[in-house]
Write a structure and sequence with these properties.
Layout lengths: L39 H13 L4 E8 L10 E7 L4 E7 L1 H6 L10 E11 L4 E11 L4 H15 L17 E6 L4 H13 L4 E5 L7 H13 L4 E8 L13 H9 L4 E5 L7 H5 L2 E2 L3 H8 L3 H38 L1 H43 L2 H12 L2 H30 L1 H6 L4 E3 L17 E5 L4 E5 L11
Parallel strand pairs: 3-5, 6-7, 6-8, 8-9, 9-10
Antiparallel strand pairs: 1-2, 1-4, 2-3, 4-5, 11-12, 12-13
Helix pairs in contact: 4-8, 5-6
Length: 480
C-alpha cells in the first residue's frame, strides 16, 4: 500500500519530521534528593543491629527495682550506677536465672553482669539480656541492713511468738511521724471516716541524720501515756536512702521494748524495713495502718444489724422446729399402739438379724474346727514317725556310697602324691649310682673347702653307707 492511501489518523510519530515540527525537547525536571523514611519497627531493627555490634559486655552496678521472679521464671530489674544518675534495664531469662547466678539478684546487691545489649522493640528501650550474674560486693546500705537483720533475727526480735494482737477498742491512738507529711493527714482522714478515735501525735523527722533518734524519743514519749493503747509509726514511700531512719538498730530495739502494740507503716512495698519486721503488725501504707487500728463504726453497725437479722431468723426457725416437734410428740402420744407396733417390728428385725449372725458365726467356727482337725491329723506322732522313717530309709545306702566314693578319691590323691614324692626323692637319685658325702656335722658336703685333710666322711649309697677319710682336697678355681 502507498503512503498516499494511508489513513489520516496515523499517530504523529509515523509522519516524516519537517522543519516546522523541529522543536527543542524539554529538559527533564530536576529531581530533589529523597529522604529515607523509616517505620518504627524498621528503626527499632536498625538500632538493634547497631547495638548488637557491641557483642557481649561485662557491666557492674547495684540492683534496684527487682520484684521477684515473673510467672514465667524470668527476672526483670534495673542496674544503676551509685556514683552517677545512670541506669539500664536488665532481663535474665529463666534458664540463666536457674543456672548462672539468678539467686544473686536482690535489691541493693552489687553484681557484675555478663550480658548482651538488646533493643526491646515493644517498649523501644535499651536493655541488657543477662547470661551470667556474679557477686561484686553488696551496696553499703544494703549490706548494713542485711547484717542488722541477721543480728536482730538471731536475737529473736522478728519472731511471731513475741508479737501482740491489736486492741479491738483503742481509747487513744498514738502516731509517730512528721506533722507536715502526707502520712499523718492520711491517718487522720481514715480515722475520722471510720470511727473518730482520738489521735495523739508525737512529732518527729522521718528523714535525715537525726530522724532515727527523734523517732525513738517520740515513740518513748507515747509509750509513757497510759491512755494510748496502740501506736502507729511510719511515713510515706521513698527511696532506700530516704527510709534509712527506719533501719536504725536503736529504733528497732525501742519498738521491740515498747509496752504498747506497734504498727509500722512505712510506705515501701518492695522491701520491708527493719522497723516493719520488729513491729507487732506491718501495714503497707499509713492509711492501711489506720484501717487496722481504728474500728469501723459503720461496719460495726452493719454487723450488728446483720447479727440481729440472723438472730431473728434463728429464733423463728427454732420456734417453728419446736412447734413441729411438739406436734409430732402430740401425734405419738395420741396413738401409742402405733409406736408399740413399730418397736415390736424393730425387735423382730433385730432378733432375725441376731439369729442369722449367730448361724453364720457357728458355721464359721465349724469350718475353723475342721481345718484344725486336718492340720492336727497331719501332725500326729504316728504320721510324723512314718514320714521320718521313709525319709531315713535310703540314707544308710547313700552314706556308704558317699564314704566309698570319698575313700577312693583319697586313695587316688595319696597315690598321686606318693608318685610325686618318689620323683623328687634323693633316694631315687642314689638308685641311679650317685652317692651323698656327709660331713662330720652330718650335713651333705657340697664344697671341697668345707672339709679338711683327715676328716672322716660318711658316704651314703643306694644300699647302705661306707666311711671314708679325706686324704686330699681339690678346691675349685675362683673363676668357677
Amino acid at each position: 500500500m502507498s503512503s498516499r492511501s494511508r489513513s489520516p489518523y496515523l499517530p504523529l510519530f509515523d509522519r516524516a519530521p519537517d522543519d516546522r515540527d523541529a522543536r527543542p525537547e524539554p529538559r527533564p525536571p530536576r529531581e530533589e534528593p529523597r529522604e529515607e523514611v523509616f517505620s518504627v519497627l524498621d528503626l527499632a531493627n536498625r538500632l538493634r543491629q547497631r547495638v548488637q555490634t557491641l557483642g557481649q559486655v561485662v557491666v557492674e552496678g547495684e540492683v534496684s527495682g527487682f520484684r521477684g521472679p515473673a510467672p514465667t521464671g524470668h527476672l526483670y530489674f534495673t542496674l544503676k550506677d551509685e556514683r552517677a544518675d545512670a541506669c539500664v534495664s536488665c532481663a535474665m531469662f529463666r534458664r540463666e536465672a536457674q543456672l548462672a547466678g539468678g539467686d544473686r539478684i536482690a535489691n541493693g546487691a552489687r553484681v557484675r553482669l555478663r550480658a548482651t545489649p538488646e533493643v526491646f522493640a515493644p517498649r523501644g528501650a535499651l536493655q541488657l539480656v543477662v547470661q551470667r550474674a556474679m557477686a561484686a560486693g553488696e551496696g553499703d546500705l544494703a549490706a548494713r541492713r542485711e547484717a542488722l537483720k541477721r543480728k536482730l533475727s538471731a536475737e529473736g526480735l522478728f519472731d511471731e511468738a513475741r508479737k501482740r494482737p491489736l486492741p479491738s477498742e483503742p481509747r487513744v491512738i498514738g502516731v509517730v511521724t512528721s506533722p507536715t507529711g502526707a502520712a499523718f493527714h492520711d491517718i487522720v482522714k481514715v480515722a475520722r471516716r471510720r470511727g473518730r478515735v482520738p489521735i495523739l501525735l508525737s512529732p518527729a523527722q522521718v528523714q535525715g541524720d537525726v530522724a532515727a533518734a527523734q523517732l525513738r524519743r517520740a515513740l518513748e514519749r507515747l509509750a509513757r501515756v497510759a491512755e494510748v493503747d496502740v501506736i502507729i509509726i511510719g511515713r510515706g514511700g521513698g527511696s532506700a536512702e530516704d527510709l534509712a531512719a527506719f533501719d536504725d538498730e536503736d529504733l528497732a530495739r525501742a519498738i521491740a521494748a515498747c509496752p504498747k502494740p506497734v504498727v509500722a507503716a512505712v510506705g515501701h512495698e518492695v522491701d520491708w524495713s527493719i522497723a516493719c519486721l520488729v513491729a507487732d503488725v506491718r501495714a503497707a501504707t499509713p492509711s492501711q495502718a489506720a484501717e487496722l487500728v481504728v474500728p469501723d463504726h459503720a461496719a460495726r453497725r452493719d454487723r450488728l444489724a446483720e447479727g440481729l437479722r440472723r438472730l431473728t431468723l434463728a429464733m423463728r426457725s427454732r420456734m417453728q422446729g419446736d412447734a413441729a416437734t411438739l406436734a409430732r410428740l402430740d401425734r405419738r402420744v395420741r396413738a401409742p399402739e402405733r409406736a408399740l407396733a413399730m418397736r415390736r417390728q424393730l425387735v423382730d428385725d433385730l432378733a432375725d438379724r441376731m439369729a442369722q449372725s449367730m448361724r453364720g458365726r457357728i458355721a464359721e467356727r465349724a469350718r475353723e474346727k475342721e481345718h484344725l482337725e486336718r492340720r492336727l491329723a497331719a501332725r500326729h506322732p504316728r504320721t510324723v514317725l512314718a514320714d521320718s522313717r521313709r525319709a531315713l530309709a535310703p540314707l544308710p545306702f547313700r552314706l556308704r556310697a558317699a564314704i566309698a566314693r570319698v575313700l577312693e578319691q583319697e586313695r587316688s590323691r595319696v597315690a598321686m602324691v606318693a608318685h610325686k614324692l618318689d620323683a623328687i626323692s634323693p633316694l631315687a637319685v642314689l638308685a641311679r649310682g650317685y652317692a651323698i658325702a656327709l660331713g662330720p656335722d652330718g650335713r651333705a658336703v657340697r664344697d671341697a673347702r668345707d672339709v679338711r685333710v683327715g676328716d672322716r666322711l660318711s658316704v651314703r649309697l643306694d644300699r647302705g653307707a661306707v666311711d671314708a677319710e679325706v686324704t686330699a682336697t681339690h678346691p675349685p678355681d675362683d673363676d668357677e
